[in-house]
């Protein structure tokens, strides 16, 4: 095998998605939450390589020759998309992660940071969620395919550490939103779906319909905050145990309040209704960021999360500005 380069070559799978785009933004800066001297960052999409295909993935690793991997690529979707395609969410994500981790191992990659989600946690559990509770019971039924595939990432990481001494780890973000999201009306997560629905209602003079009762609570993290924390984890988190990345656990927002914030950010003045016949999904899944905060403190670092309303306004402004031009909308 050819010699490894003397600088870090970081392959970012899913580099064109919501979080991948935010990491592109984060590594425009340097420092503990950004690019290190000499870094080479390589962002790939499904068009560059279908990671469900082991052989094609091997060719990608041979071409890029990464020393580090940030593994974001996944089949991702909101509640309604997950409920409609449990088997696809399970299988695609199992195949993608198997191809990435085994090829990383075979190529001698020293460190992989993969992305889980707070969906992986048990439905029946004491709150707040902590890193120790991932496997403590079945996940919520609404996205069990995706959740089990993501739990397996943590199991695989432990197995690569046990058998091969690899430092393959995972971060666990809460619900993410930001510029460059997936805005598919039915398949997207709640905030981008509501931004899109509200903009259409504003432009078409039609009612803005929010699914479910509006009562469920979600702990949102801005993609640009998450990206800086993932880059920090790559730089400075050296443990196979997963790490929750989220704002404080009391930062929960109800779906009704999130919808109201979208209405304000878009300046929508029309009729606005809840459709309670649509599913609510999990009621809440508040996660503790105590481990993250402790680690940052130990390293003498201060991290300020962007306030929700400011992050939402930035995201809505990006969506409106790119509505006619971005390939993902
Ligand atoms: P996203 O916007 O849907 O982007 C998904 C990315 O994965 C895209 O770059 C996509 O490439 C790529 N991808 C999908 N299927 C692929 C395949 N078969 N082969 C190669 N690449 C493929 O997702 P995201 O929100 O950025 O999510 C990133 C990570 O964060 C995921 O692991 C997700 O599970 C996790 N996460 C997300 C959230 C959230 O609320 N969004 C919450 C918690 C955790 P194309 O652009 O070419 O399609
Ligand atoms: P989850 O956190 O994995 O459940 O994912 P979502 O981002 O899809 O959030 C789902 C919550 O938002 C549920 O309580 C839904 O009832 C509510 N919701 C309201 N309107 C929408 C919508 O248009 N799309 C989605 N995905 N969820 C919606």
UniProtKB/TrEMBL annotation:
Which family is this protein grouped under?
Belongs to the NAD(P)-dependent epimerase/dehydratase family. Fucose synthase subfamily.
* InterPro entries, per database record: Epimerase_deHydtase, GDP_fucose/colitose_synth, NAD(P)-bd_dom_sf
Entry's SUPFAM superfamilies?
NAD(P)-binding Rossmann-fold domains
Sorted alphabetically, the keyword list is:
Isomerase, NADP, Oxidoreductase
Stated EC number for the protein is: 1.1.1.271
Query: What are the residue boundaries of the NAD-dependent epimerase/dehydratase domain, all occurrences included?
Result: 10-239
**Protein name (Swiss-Prot/TrEMBL):** GDP-L-fucose synthase
Q: Which domain of life is it from?
A: Eukaryota
| Gene3D superfamilies per the UniProt record, alphabetical | NAD(P)-binding Rossmann-like Domain (3.40.50.720), UDP-galactose 4-epimerase, domain 1 (3.90.25.10)
Q: In which pathway does it act?
A: Nucleotide-sugar biosynthesis; GDP-L-fucose biosynthesis via de novo pathway; GDP-L-fucose from GDP-alpha-D-mannose: step 2/2
């Amino acid at each position: 095998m050819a010699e490894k380069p003397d600088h870090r070559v970081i392959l970012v799978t899913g580099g064109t998605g919501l979080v991948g785009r935010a990491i592109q933004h984060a590594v425009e800066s340097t420092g503990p939450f950004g690019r290190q001297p000499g870094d080479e960052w390589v962002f790939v999409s499904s068009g560059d390589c279908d990671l469900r295909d082991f052989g094609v993935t091997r060719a990608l690793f041979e071409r890029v020759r990464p020393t580090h991997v940030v593994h974001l690529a996944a089949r991702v979707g909101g509640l309604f998309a997950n409920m409609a395609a449990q088997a696809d969410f399970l299988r695609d994500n199992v195949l993608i992660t198997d191809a990435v981790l085994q090829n990383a191992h075979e190529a001698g990659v020293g460190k992989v940071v993969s992305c889980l989600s707070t969906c992986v946690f048990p439905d029946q559990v004491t709150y707040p969620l902590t890193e120790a509770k991932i496997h403590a019971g079945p996940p919520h039924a609404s996205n069990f395919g995706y959740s089990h595939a993501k739990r397996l990432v943590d199991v695989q990481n432990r197995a690569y550490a046990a058998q091969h001494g690899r430092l393959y780890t995972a971060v666990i973000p809460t619900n993410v939103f930001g510029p460059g999201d997936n805005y598919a009306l039915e398949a997207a997560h709640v905030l981008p779906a509501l931004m899109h629905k509200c903009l259409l209602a504003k432009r078409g003079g039609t009612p803005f319909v929010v699914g479910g009762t509006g009562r469920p609570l979600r702990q949102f993290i801005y993609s640009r905050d998450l990206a800086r924390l993932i880059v920090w984890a790559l730089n400075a988190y050296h443990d196979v145990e997963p790490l929750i990345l989220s704002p404080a656990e009391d930062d929960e927002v109800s779906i009704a309040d999130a919808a109201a914030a979208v209405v304000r950010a878009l300046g929508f003045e029309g009729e606005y209704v809840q459709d309670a016949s649509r599913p609510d999904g999990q009621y809440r899944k508040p996660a503790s960021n105590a481990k993250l905060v402790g680690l940052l403190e130990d390293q003498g670092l201060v991290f300020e999360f962007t306030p929700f309303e400011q992050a939402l306004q930035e995201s809505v402004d990006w969506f409106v500005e790119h509505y006619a031009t971005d390939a993902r909308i």
